[in-house]
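Reviewers of the previous submission asked for a worked example of the structure-prediction workflow described in the proposal, so we include one complete record here. The input consisted solely of the amino acid sequence. No template or homolog information was supplied to the procedure at any stage.
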Amino acid sequence: MLAALALVTACGTDVPAGLADKVESGCPGLLKPEPLAVITKGFEVSQVNSEEADSCQVFVSTGKKILSLGLGAYASQEESERLTPMLCTSGVLDSETKSCEAGQPGDVGLSVHAVAGRWNVRVYVYEVPANDEIKEAVQQIIEDLRSSNKTKNS
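From that input alone, the workflow returned the following structure tokens.
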């Protein structure tokens, strides 16, 4: 899985014109344009916003939400590692990625929870089949958040 993440980052992703600006103005510090470009391939992103603190939503031109992410704070990393698995179908975190999938109705979409320091990261993808490329992009979002000032300094 980590090799695949490196591949996504190393190969680069074509980021549509204007997407980076939408991400930076709509969800500063929470989301980077490259993994979002993978998730929204074939769609036109119309809106990127943060309606609540520590959250981000992405909508496409059809008006549908395609991505939602949020951070939930715990008192400590230990508490996050203990409680986050309770949100997942398997009830355990993957030892390598410190993440797990939650139940998703139907066969379209993906719901992932992960630990980032004392934070629980929630990433939901809608309207897109959860293939390996989408899963890798979601994992990249999680890794980006783990290395961001958002989760390291608070």
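DSSP finds six helices and six strands in the chain. We consider this example representative of the routine output the project will generate in years two and three.
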